[in-house]
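Z., the sequence and structure:
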Amino acid sequence: MQGGGFRDRTPEYEEVGAAVVGASFDTVEAQKQFADDQGFPYRLLADTTKEMGRAYGATQEEKPWPARITYLIDPEGT
């Protein structure tokens, strides 16, 4: 699982000043449940309008399930 790999490496990313942020088109409640179930130490954003996903070219409009995307943001914000 992509999110699990990021979860397991979060301390390494934090050491170099990077941040991990997950995003999905799920609701806030669904995101919280998923994060709790998976033990994610990083934020999961609820992009219910798909605005962020579209901006990053990461939507799965043709698929019936929500896209789950993880972003690694470096200290410069990239």
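Helices lie at 2-15, 28-38, 51-55. Residues 25 and 48 are 5 Å apart (CA to CA).

Let me know what you think.
H.
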